[in-house]
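fwd from M.: "can u put these together and see what the complex looks like"

so here's what she sent:
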Amino acid sequence: MNEKIIINARVVDPSQKLDEMGAVIIDKNGKVKAIGKKVTKKDCPNAEVIDVKKNILIPGIVDMKAFVGEPGFEYKENFRTLSQAALAGGVTSIVTMPNTKPIIDNVSMVDFIMRRGRDKSKINLFPCASLTKQMEGKLMTEFGLLSAKGIIGFSDVNKTVQNTETMARIMDYASDIGVLIMQHAEDYELSKNRCINEGEVSNRLGLSGISSIAEKIIIERDLSLLSEFPCRYHINQISSKNSLEVIKKNKLNGKKFSVGVSINNISLNENDIGDFKTFLKLSPPLRLEDDRKALVQGIKNGLIDVIVSDHTPEDEESKRLPFAQAATGAIGVETLLPLALELYHNESLPLNKIIECLTINPSNILKINKGTLKKGYDADICVIDLNKPWVVKAGDLKSKSKNTAIEDKRLQGKVLMTFLQGEAVFKN
Amino acid sequence: MAVVKKISAIKNSPKHLLGIQNLSILEAKKILNEAKTFIKLNRSNTKKLDSLRGKTQINLFFEPSTRTQSSFDLAGKRLGADVMTMNMSNSALKKGETLIDTAMTLNAMHPDLIVIRHQDSGAPNLLSQKVNCAVINAGDGRREHPTQALLDALTIISRKGNIEGLKIAICGDILHSRVARSNIYLMNMLGAEVNVIAPKTLMPKSIERLGVKAFTNMKKGLDGCDIVMMLRLQNERMQGSFLPSKREYYEYFGLTPEKLKFAKKNALIMHPGPMNRGVEIDTKLADDINVSLVKEQVELGVAVRMACLKLYCK
C-alpha cells in the first residue's frame, strides 16, 4: 500500500480535542502518520491524494453492541452482511454478542467465530462471551481462559443475572482478573410477559407494560455490589430518567463504571410504536419523551458514555406476529451515525460529544486501540457529508434482515467513505 | 372525478371493526341506530331476515367464550348468513401455525366476515391486514371489546334515553379489562363522564390520560353516578397476587346495596358477565330487576352484533 493523504477535511477527533480543517497522512502500514491543520501535501509529495471537499473526517465508529447471526442464525445476519452494513454506516469496529446458537460460552466457540470473522468480514471484530454458562444466569463462564483467547467482555446480552449471590461472585471474581462485565438491567419478576413501556400507550394498545423500576432496581443492586467488588462494570443500555438519577448519584460519589444507551432510546419514544409496529418492540423498551430527553441530557453531561446500535437482526416471520409474540429488536448498525447526527441537527448535542460517544469512549471502556486518529494508531476512518438528506428504506440497507425501526425516516448526514487501516473499503 | 371519489370514500364505512378507538362518533351512532331496529325483531316470533343471505361468516375464537360466541353465532344466523364457528384454542395453533397462515387459509375460502377473539392485543389488527373480508373484533387481549361497549351503550340508551350528560362508574379489574377500555372510549365519545374504581394493583398507570377520573374508594367513585358497571374479577387474581383475598375485595370493592347508595338514587347496575356472585357483586342485587340490567345486556348484545355484521359486511 502506498502512502495516502486525505486533504481538505474537517478533522473531528474528540480523543485529541481536534475540530479543524486539515489533512491526515496514512503511512504504508495503514497507520496514521500525521493529522491536523499543519499537515499539507508538501509533507508527503509521493502520496496518493484524496480530496474530501471539506467534509467531516472522524475516527471509524466503535459499536459496542451488535448481534451477528453466526453461528446458528445465519438466515438473520452473517459476518459478511454485518460487515457490509457496518462499513456503509462508518462503523469499523464491532463488539459482537454471544447469544448465538450455540452460545459463545467456551473456548472452542471463540476459535470458531474468530476464524469466521477474519475470513468473512472486513471490520475489526471484538467478540463478547456470555457472562454465565448458557446465559442461564447461574454459573460463571471461564473469564480468564476466554479473555486469553481474545474475548473483550462478558455479557448475557438481553438477559440479566437475577440471583444476587451469583452476581456478587461474578463481580468479585472479575474484579481480581480485570475483565469487563456488561450487564443488561432488567428485573424479570417486574418485566415478565411484558413488552413495552408502562403508560398511556400500553393502556391504549392493551399490552402489559414494563415499569422503569425493573431497570432501576438491577442498576441499584449492581452498583451496591460494585462498592464491595470494584470490577470493570458496564451497563449495556439504559432507557429511563429513573435509572439516570441512580447513575448520577453513584457517579458523583466517585464510583467507577460506564453506561451505554441505544440510539433507539435517544431518537424515538413510545408513541412511535403507533398501531402495533413490531419493529419498534425493543429491549429495553422505548419510553416517554421525557425519558428520551433526559437520556440525551445524560449524554451531554457525561452520565452516559456510549451510544450503541443494539443491532438485532430478525427475519420477517418472527416479526409478523401479534405484538406480544413478536421477536424483540431492530437492526441499526448502518443507521447508527446518521440517526445520531439528528441530535446534532436539532441542536440537542454538540457534534464532538456525539462522535466521542461513538469512538473514543467505547474504546476506552473496552481498552482497545481504536476510536482515535492519534499518530501511530490504525487509520480506521469515516468521512461524512454532514448535511446530505436521505430517506431510510429498508430495502436499501445492507443487513440481511430488514427490521429497521426507522423505515421512511428522513435523515440528514450520510457516510461518504470508510477506511480500514488506510484502505478505502466503502465509497458512496 | 377526484372529488366524487373522495365523497364516496367518506360514505363507505370503514372495512373493519377493530376497536372503539378507531371509530368516529357518526359510525358509533350509526351502529346503535341500526341495532335499535333489531330489538323488536328479536322479541318477535319470526326472527329470521335475509340481509346476509349467501354470505359466509367465520367465528374464529382463539380464547374460550360462551356468551360472545353464541351471540355472534345467533346474530349471523338471524340475518341469514352461513355461520361457521371455529374453536381455535385446541387447533391449528398447537401445530405451530401462525395467525397469518390461519388467516390466509381462511381467506382462501372467501368468507365475507371474520369475527375474531384472540388472547393477544392487536391480533385482529394484524389479521385485518391480511384478509379481503371484514374483520370484527370480539375481544383481543386486554385492548378492546368493541361490541360489548356498543351493547352496553344501547342498553343504557334503552333505559335512560341518552348517554350524554350521564355519570358512569366502571368498577373492578380495570388493568386486565378490554371491556373497561372500550367502554371508556365509547362512553366518553357519547358525552358521558366516566369514573373508574379499582384497588391500586388493578388500576393501570396513567389511566387518567384516557379521559377518566380514577378512584380507589367506592364511596368517592360512585358519588353522583347514574350507571355502575361492574367487571369480572378473575379467580387467579384474587388469591394474593394482586389482592389479599376474595373477602377483602368484597369488603371494599364488592357492590352491595349499601355501597350502591353512594351513587344516584335511581342508579342502574351493569355487568358484562359471567358474574362472581359474592365477590364483585351481591347476589340479590345482581338479580334485582329494578336495578340490574344484566339480562337486558345479553339480549341487546344480539341486536348490536346483528347491526355490526350487517354494516360491515360488503
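replying to her w this: Chain A touches chain B through 21 residues (CB under 8 Å).
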